[in-house]
Design goal:
Strand order of the largest sheet: 2-1-11
Shape: elongated
Order of helices and strands: HHHHHHHEEEHEHHEEEHEEEHHE
Keywords: Membrane, Transmembrane, Transmembrane helix
Number of domains: 2
Structural class: alpha+beta
Mean pLDDT: 86
Organism: [Ruminococcus] torques
Protein name: Stage II sporulation protein
InterPro entries: SpoIID/LytB (IPR013486), SpoIID/LytB_N (IPR013693)
GO biological process, one term: sporulation resulting in formation of a cellular spore
């Protein structure tokens, strides 16, 4: 009888130990030990370090990484309903090793440091979280939200000079796309053309840029009889930027793009160059989101 009770007690405590260790075992199995340890014991900082790994080159200057950490944290709090979409961008230990190779340990520590040293800091505007869009590089100048979208809710997202972006990696790209492929990808917003035109397809004369915004991004363009925005065209064709121009080619439409991303908010390339020049993350953020303020939250 005593042996039976003793065995039950042992089984009970064994169960408690397994229950306690199970989350750790699962995390190690999925992400590896380092990902579980993170920058500190706080889950928010761990997630943020993993998001930084997905959204940046971990070899960036630490102040540029800090600026990006504040931007990402602000978006996590601001877009509560879309939080999982942001968290899906976290990289696992395996993905980090594949991305960084021999720089894995060094870059991971920098991401963890950036998350930890900005812990709880977000960008604040009028008693709420600011909208903090960012992109890899502009065409040399970021875009003004009010001018492009007609939205006055974000007066701190204005056009900022970023001349150093012109030296960014893959800043200028040339894409050659067949006209039938363009017609296929843009079908959702193309107006119905007369049957003969629809059968023959488009040619170079059917593409016309009609208007640019003040930063040099295509604001309005024509495809046949359809008037659309440069952003619609960029998204449909998965172009790196809506700062583009057209050139004729016997094999399709040649599209030259400048920059990478939508062009709103912080340019990661310029942020990195500012950090190299001695600017701290507060100065970087104030340049791109002028009028916002840093606010500390308890995570």
């Amino acid at each position: 009888m005593r042996d039976t009770i003793r065995n039950k007690i042992k089984l009970f405590f064994a169960f408690l130990i397994i229950l306690f260790l199970l989350p750790y075992i699962i995390s190690v199995f999925i992400n590896g030990k380092n990902a579980v340890q993170g920058a500190d014991s706080d889950n928010a900082s761990v997630y943020l370090a993993e998001m930084l790994a997905g959204e940046t080159d971990g070899g960036c200057e630490i102040e540029a990484l800090k600026a990006q950490a504040v931007v990402l944290r602000t978006e996590l709090y601001r877009t509560e309903k879309e939080k999982q979409t942001l968290l899906d961008k976290c990289l696992t230990q395996t993905q980090m090793k594949k991305k960084w190779g021999t720089k894995y340990e060094e870059n991971l520590k920098k991401c963890q440091q950036a998350a930890q040293e900005t812990k709880g800091i977000v960008l604040w505007y009028h008693e709420t979280f600011a909208w903090t869009p960012f992109h890899q590089s502009s065409n040399g100048k970021t875009r003004d939200v009010q001018e492009v979208l007609g939205n006055a809710d974000y007066p701190y997202i204005t056009a900022k000079e970023c001349p150093l972006d012109k030296a960014a990696e893959d800043e200028i790209q040339v894409h050659l796309i067949e006209y039938k492929e363009i017609q296929k990808r843009c079908r959702e917003f193309l107006v119905a053309e007369e049957q003969k035109k629809a059968e023959n397809g488009y040619g170079y004369e059917d593409f016309e840029i009609q208007e640019w915004d003040s930063s040099g991004y295509v604001r309005k363009m024509r495809i046949g009889e359809t008037i659309c925005t440069g952003d619609q065209f960029r998204d449909a064709l998965k172009l790196p930027s809506s700062s583009f121009s057209f050139y004729e080619s016997p094999h399709g439409l040649k599209i030259a793009t400048v920059g990478k991303g939508h062009g709103f908010g912080m340019s990661q390339w310029t942020a990195q160059e500012m950090a190299k020049d001695g600017k701290n993350y507060e100065e970087i953020l104030q340049y791109f989101y002028e009028g916002t303020e840093l606010h500390h939250l308890d995570e």
